[in-house]
Amino acid sequence: MSSKHHRVGDGPLIRRTLIGLAVVLTVLFLFMPLVVIFTQAFAQGWAGYIGNILDEYTLHAIGLTLFVALLTVPLNTVFGVFLAWLVTRFSFPGRRLLISLIDIPFAVSPVVAGLLYLLLYGSNGWAGQWLGQYDVELMFAWPGIVMVTVFVTCPFVARELIPLMQQQGRDEEEAAVVLGASGWQLFRRVTLPNIRWALLYGVILTNARAVGEFGAVSVVSGSIRGETNTLPLHVELLYQDHNIVGAFTAASLLAGIALITLAVKTIAEWRQSRV
Amino acid sequence: MTIEIDGINKSFGQFQALRDIDLTIPDGQLTALLGPSGSGKTTLLRSIAGLENPDRGRILFSGEDVTGLHVRERRVGFVFQHYALFRHMTVSENVAFGLKVMPRRERPSKPEIRRRVRELLEMVQLDHLAGRYPAQLSGGQKQRIALARAMAKRPEILLLDEPFGALDAKVRKELRRWLRSLHDELHFTSVFVTHDQEEALELSDQVVVMRQGSVEQVDSPLELYSQPDSRFVFNFLGQVNALPGAISGGVLRQGEAWVRLPESCDDDDAELYLRPHEVRLTQEPSQNAHLPFRIEAINVIGAEVRVELRPDGWESEELWEVGITHSAFNARQPGRGDRCYAVPDVGHLFCDHLSEPKTLSWYDSAG
């Protein structure tokens, strides 16, 4: 019998192989592409990078993407908090069904979602025809892009909040009401502080997805340069134009947002684990 | 403030939690709501607070109907079973919450709030923990902070839901005494929920025994223990020894066991209930009772020696339990498996044709 005891599966050979494999895969599939994005984006140096960003259509794509996120994120934050409150604080028939329905946007492919909106609100769809009588065009314009982005990102906040609010229960809220708190005071002073880190996490995920959504948006946007082209769509357009450096410059902006999201998410998770 | 409960009913789906509750909770007294789990005691407490809306019936505070009044308007103090302290606030912020959320016109000034919070924390003897968060407190400390928070707006009614349920025995006893003295000092009307008989009997002025959503009996602890109205109350409050049998010619009989009743009773099926201290243990049967047993177990820990007895030649649902003094135990040295006899001094007879039990005494007859 050897003097050293190992737990099952903890032999030095197994351990080193597994760690090595994980490192290689991470570098190959996660880290290298990220590096490639930035090296390609900077292939023409700083001046070229700035020049590509200041391109008229790229600037417009950035603007539209931020505009869509600016509308989507607050909307889905309010919606998510409202929904989580509803299903965790009240019991009503159909509550479980509602909790399952929240996940539809996760289950449906974004392209299918885009297509559904197109069929419903496009000029030939039944809602679209009715709106057409009033000269309202939702598809192939920014309202359509916002609509599908809201659809795709609506579960994030609610999904983060529901398990936490279920676990925390309603005791503290009842205590606050007995002590005389109004509905707003209750939310502002008791509920919100208890859910703030999970809420922030949900908002970050919503934002990341809203900025990066491609499939659903590409169906309803029509990709009109300088009008309905968001940043992810713009990357594809530039790439098809054989403007490789331009495409990677736009992609590097999205990658940058992703990195910031990751950092904030890590902080939010760390803070939440301390509460 | 007197609390009157007038014909309260409450259902959760198919389950009827409260049925036709009529109850008066006297001003300035400590009332216990006692019952097994699922008896509706917590629902009744929450209805008084306004956290549940009864389906039918009225609740009155000092004669004023508050049934339609929102929780926040009822001005009651409520202590939750699991304390429900605000986890992101310090102890002093928790205690100050009720004062801070008052409308600006009624709200005390900031220095006044600070002074009140300090006072309350001194009252619960935890002023040194003002800056701590709930997660840094022990169970007993949390409970006292919850109490201080509930008292912050000087409510005239204090409601407590299983206030000592989650604490260990020693802390529980300490807090019980402390709550009693606080109550005697401040004279608010308090109602607390418990499933612990000892706690209810020790702490309260009045006990409300509940069962399956109804009130079974309302009485002072002493009355309740010595004169239970029903078999349920008798069973629920402490150990009970039962002899089920049939009366014939003034003798209650089952198998080899019989007891001659000191009062005349009609022939009927009946059950005799005896508290452990109402029975003596002898080596020979008396002329009034023949209750043979085998000794099953002996427990010497405590002020008395508790002897568990298995009926010999007759049957009872549970083992009998009789207490004897340590000196009597040492003099006789009974062992497991020995045969002995029980002789009743006082007993409570539940006849099937009578709704009220009859209390019997054998002291006068030669035993």
From TrEMBL, chain A:
State the Pfam families in the record. Answer: BPD_transp_1 (PF00528)
Signal peptide position in this chain? Answer: none
Show the stretches that span the lipid bilayer: 21-42, 62-85, 97-120, 140-158, 198-224, 244-264
Gene Ontology cellular component terms for the protein in this record = plasma membrane
Recorded hits in InterPro entries, A to Z, give: CysW_permease (IPR011866), MetI-like (IPR000515), MetI-like_sf (IPR035906), Sulph_transpt2 (IPR005667)
Q: Which SUPFAM superfamilies match?
A: MetI-like (SSF161098)
One example of the protein's molecular function in GO is: ABC-type sulfate transporter activity
Keyword Zinc-finger in record? no
Q: In terms of domain of life, where is this protein from?
A: Bacteria
Show where the ABC transmembrane type-1 domain sits. Answer: 62-266
The record gives the membrane topology as:
Multi-pass membrane protein
Keyword list, A-Z: Cell inner membrane, Cell membrane, Membrane, Sulfate transport, Transmembrane, Transmembrane helix, Transport
- Annotated localization: Cell inner membrane
Q: What is the documented function of this protein?
A: Part of the ABC transporter complex CysAWTP (TC 3.A.1.6.1) involved in sulfate/thiosulfate import. Probably responsible for the translocation of the substrate across the membrane.
User: Whom does it interact with, and what assembly results?
Assistant: The complex is composed of two ATP-binding proteins (CysA), two transmembrane proteins (CysT and CysW) and a solute-binding protein (CysP).
Q: What name does the UniProt record give this protein?
A: Sulfate transport system permease protein CysW
Automatic annotation (TrEMBL), chain B:
Q: Which SUPFAM superfamilies match?
A: MOP-like, P-loop containing nucleoside triphosphate hydrolases
Record keywords, A-Z: ATP-binding, Cell membrane, Membrane, Nucleotide-binding, Sulfate transport, Translocase, Transport
Question: Has keyword ATP-binding?
Answer: yes
Which InterPro entries does the record cross-reference, listed alphabetically? AAA+_ATPase, ABC_SmlMolc_Importer, ABC_transporter-like_ATP-bd, ABC_transporter-like_CS, Mo/tungstate-bd_C_term_dom, P-loop_NTPase, Sulph_transpt1, TOBE-like
Q: Which domain of life is it from?
A: Bacteria
> What is one term from the GO cellular component aspect held by the record?
ATP-binding cassette (ABC) transporter complex
Q: Which GO terms describe its molecular function?
A: ABC-type sulfate transporter activity; ATP binding; ATP hydrolysis activity
| Keyword Transport annotated | yes
Q: What is this protein called?
A: Sulfate ABC transporter ATP-binding protein
